[in-house]
Amino acid sequence: MAATTKSNKQLVLDGVLKENPIFRLALSMCPAVGISTSVMNGILLGIAVLFVQVFSSCTISIIRHYIHPRIRIPTYTLTIATWVTVIDLVLSAYFPVAYKAMGIFVKLIVAFAIITMRLEMFACKNTLEKSFWDGLGMGLGFMFGMVTLGFVRELLGSGTLLGHDILGFRPLLFFILPSAGFFVVGLMMGLFNWVDVVYSRRKEG
Question: Which of 82, 98, 169, 186 has the fewest beta carbons under 10 Å from its own?
Answer without folding.
Answer: 169
